[in-house]
């Protein structure tokens, strides 16, 4: 088991990729705390997780409530006695043309994605220093390629990649690695989004060399397990493209 007894936090753990990673990590022996504002879905995912890893937990939280972010880390460390892995996966945003993007659109994307990632990394730091742990953050082709209608989301995603690289440089000496996954996977979030933006959706699918959307647990899960495990100890500041080959960084 690659993650035996590792204590993991996954934000957005009730969602598509979040719950897929949670199951993949639990199957490798991790104790997983999923954090999400969707209580019904969070409890449903928790029931599945507890069948695999009985110590798993669900913390209902709205990550835009910045003053409560520190409590999430405290709650998990109190229960598990340590923190090995922080996965900043939750993110919500609205798609709008560049010229119509408002301050509210920008704030929504930064408040659900960028700031929770930043503040949770700060709160997790002393614990990760002790465990020589890992951070896994999330990017998107929307940011890497500047996809249309994604101004706020693209900006927040690239800001997340930027701070991940700074932390990788600063925290490497403590044995903490910070890496980024840029996924493509079929999830409830993408399904809803595809109905509103069918043309962008089709454009993304047509560019995937593997000609299919990834599966959250089977395709993204093993990459998250690798980044959370000792197998990736000498890898930091990297963006791993888990996207069927859509974007090839050269
Ligand atoms: N699915 C895909 O193809 C792609 C996904 N990504 C990124 O991967 C990550 C996961 O994506 P999906 O699973 O598709 O997302 P999703 O929308 O299916 O799930 C996101 C989860 O985050 C939770 N969440 C949202 N705002 C929250 C808040 N304020 N507080 C607490 N929880 C909140 C939602 O309730 C949901 O359970 C995200 O960072 C996304 O931007 C990036 C590129 C493509
Ligand atoms: C949701 C997202 O970031 C996509 C499909 O690129």
Automatic annotation (TrEMBL):
Pfam families: adh_short_C2
Keywords of the record: Oxidoreductase
Family statement: Belongs to the short-chain dehydrogenases/reductases (SDR) family.
Gene3D superfamilies, per the entry: NAD(P)-binding Rossmann-like Domain
Protein name, per record: Diacetyl reductase [(S)-acetoin forming]
CDD domains, alphabetized: SDR_c (cd05233)
Keyword Protein biosynthesis: no
Uppermost EC category: oxidoreductase
Domain of life: Bacteria
Catalysis performed (reactions): (S)-acetoin + NAD(+) = diacetyl + NADH + H(+)
Tagged with keyword Oxidoreductase: yes
Organism field: Jeotgalicoccus coquinae
The enzyme's E.C. designation: 1.1.1.304
GO molecular function, one term: diacetyl reductase ((S)-acetoin forming) (NAD+) activity
Xref: InterPro entries: NAD(P)-bd_dom_sf (IPR036291), Sc_DH/Rdtase_CS (IPR020904), SDR_fam (IPR002347)
Biological role stated in the UniProt entry: Catalyzes the irreversible reduction of 2,3-butanediol to (S)-acetoin in the presence of NADH.
Single GO BP term: bile acid metabolic process
């Amino acid at each position: 088991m690659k993650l035996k007894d590792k204590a993991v936090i996954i934000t957005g753990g009730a969602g598509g990729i979040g719950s897929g990673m949670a199951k993949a990590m639990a199957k490798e022996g991790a104790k997983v705390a999923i954090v999400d504002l969707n209580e019904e879905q969070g409890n449903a995912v928790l029931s599945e997780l507890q069948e695999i890893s009985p110590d798993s937990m669900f913390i209902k939280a709205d990550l835009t409530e910045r003053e409560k972010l520190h409590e999430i880390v405290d709650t998990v460390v109190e229960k598990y006695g340590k923190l090995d892995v922080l996965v900043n996966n939750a993110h919500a945003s609205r798609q709008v043309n560049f010229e119509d993007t408002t301050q509210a659109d920008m704030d929504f994307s930064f408040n659900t994605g960028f700031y929770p990632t930043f503040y949770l990394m700060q709160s997790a730091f002393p614990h990760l220093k002790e465990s020589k742990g890992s951070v896994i953050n999330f990017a998107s082709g929307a940011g890497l390629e500047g996809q249309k209608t994604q101004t706020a989301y693209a900006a927040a995603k690239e800001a997340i990649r930027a701070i991940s690289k700074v932390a990788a440089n600063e925290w490497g000496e403590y044995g903490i690695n910070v890496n980024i996954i840029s996924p493509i996977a079929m999830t409830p979030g993408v399904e809803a989004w595809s109905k509103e933006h069918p043309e962008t959706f089709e454009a993304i699918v047509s560019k995937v060399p593997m000609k299919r959307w990834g599966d959250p647990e089977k395709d993204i899960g093993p990459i998250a397990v690798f980044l959370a495990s000792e197998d990736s100890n000498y890898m930091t500041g990297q963006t791993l493209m888990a996207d069927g080959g859509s974007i090839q960084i050269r």
